[in-house]
Amino acid sequence: MNIHEYQSREMLQTFGIPVPPGILVQNPVAAEKAFDELQKRYGSAVCVVKAQVHAGGRGKGGGVKLVKSAEEARKAANDILSKPLITPQTPPEGVPVTKLLVAAGVEIEKEYYLAITVDRVTACPVLIASSEGGMDIEEVAKTNPEAIIREPISAVAGLRAYQARKIAYFLGFKGKQVRMAGKIMHQLADLFLKNDANLAEINPLVVTKATDEHPDGTVIALDAKLNFDENAMFRQDDVRSFEDPTEEEPAERRAKQFGLSYIKLDGNIGCLVNGAGLAMSTMDIIKLHGGEPANFLDVGGSASEEAVTEAFRIILGDETVKGILVNIFGGIAKCDTIAKAIITAAKEVGFKVPLVVRLEGTNVEIARKLLEEAKGDIPMMEIGKDLTDAAKKITAHIAA
Ligand code: ADP
Ligand code: MG
């Protein structure tokens, strides 16, 4: 589960990590006022106006603008809000922007990268850091991986003091910066572990320009991206309160309401399956026969007829779907429930694309009979003898 930058900043602050002051706004006039407010309260001569969307790479897409007056803040806000934001991480058509963060501008001496994520290989959290932070970190990872340090973190003991020091020296922090950066690493590790995060990323973490008061500058987070483990949300009420359904793919949101696991993919064969393992093998076998799955849709073990009908509505609502493969191994989920849902979906929405159905398991005989009787009403339907036969039939339709 992703949250917005303005929410991430709130969490960072809760754990003691410094961020520049900022105000959330939803229109250009409010952005203008926010600039004045930040100037009055904190003496900020410069501010940044930042699009609040779940995608990153905003700086590169024109979603982060430096402004030097209230008037400029209004113009920048108007500009960002008036069109979809396209970044390397959004779909090609971009995403709508409805919220902006106006944050106090910081004089940057140097930008760093600091993140904690889960290392799937060692099965433990890992801290990743680089002195080459900022908007091109992906490029650094590709061309200059030596500039990145990876340090495993104990999920029980957290980050150790010696690790934080080692990382701080690797990054080239000097004088008071070492302690400031080390403290932020500990706070970030704490945030990550206590909130069941998958990713806690600060990019950039910056050292500010030296002043008389702070001859070594200060270390502060200018951007934060947090992502959390969906499976842990039952015990993370605070995190869940940050959920923004408008940022999710609408079909995925609808699926969630019905207890379906749905993920949209790039191919054109819609799949309806029960169980994640079966969904995986169904996608594999589609690919084996030269097809490309359009989605991953697991109706789960105990799906109701209503939920399965909704699943068909979701697949049929996707214009890229040119054929559908239903692969059900009835256990707790009964084949006749699926058959009834197919019949309802045929009546309600209609199958305008070929449909191949493979059913096995609990109540399969009843299901076959139901489908046999309904065949006249569903001319696009074919029955697969087994999974291979079903996959061959549906891929042949697509190829034709
Ligand atoms: P994104 O990662 O989506 O591109 P960031 O918030 O990291 O967005 O902003 C992009 C760049 O804008 C940063 O790398 C930094 O150079 C600059 N920036 C962001 N916030 C501030 C700020 N408060 N003051 C000064 N510069 C900023
Ligand atoms: Mg960033």
TrEMBL record:
Protein name per its UniProtKB record: Succinate--CoA ligase [ADP-forming] subunit beta
UniProt cofactor note: Binds 1 Mg(2+) ion per subunit.
Keywords, in A-Z order: ATP-binding, Ligase, Magnesium, Metal-binding, Nucleotide-binding, Tricarboxylic acid cycle
Family, as annotated: Belongs to the succinate/malate CoA ligase beta subunit family.
Molecular-function GO terms, alphabetical: ATP binding; magnesium ion binding; succinate-CoA ligase (ADP-forming) activity; succinate-CoA ligase (GDP-forming) activity
Protein residues bound to Mg(2+): N203, D223
Organism: Poriferisphaera corsica
Subunit structure: Heterotetramer of two alpha and two beta subunits.
Reaction(s) catalysed (UniProt annotation): succinate + ATP + CoA = succinyl-CoA + ADP + phosphate; GTP + succinate + CoA = succinyl-CoA + GDP + phosphate
SUPFAM superfamilies: Glutathione synthetase ATP-binding domain-like (SSF56059), Succinyl-CoA synthetase domains (SSF52210)
Physiological role: Succinyl-CoA synthetase functions in the citric acid cycle (TCA), coupling the hydrolysis of succinyl-CoA to the synthesis of either ATP or GTP and thus represents the only step of substrate-level phosphorylation in the TCA. The beta subunit provides nucleotide specificity of the enzyme and binds the substrate succinate, while the binding sites for coenzyme A and phosphate are found in the alpha subunit.
Entry EC no(s): 6.2.1.5
ATP-grasp domain residues: 9-233
Pathway info: Carbohydrate metabolism; tricarboxylic acid cycle; succinate from succinyl-CoA (ligase route): step 1/1
NCBIfam families listed in its UniProt record: PRK00696.1, sucCoAbeta
The protein's required cofactors: Mg(2+)
Binding site for ATP: K50, G57, R58, G59, V106, E111
Any one GO cellular component localisation term in the record: cytosol
Enzyme class, broadest EC rank: ligase
Gene Ontology biological process terms in this record: succinyl-CoA metabolic process; tricarboxylic acid cycle
Record-listed substrate binding positions: N274, G331, I332, A333
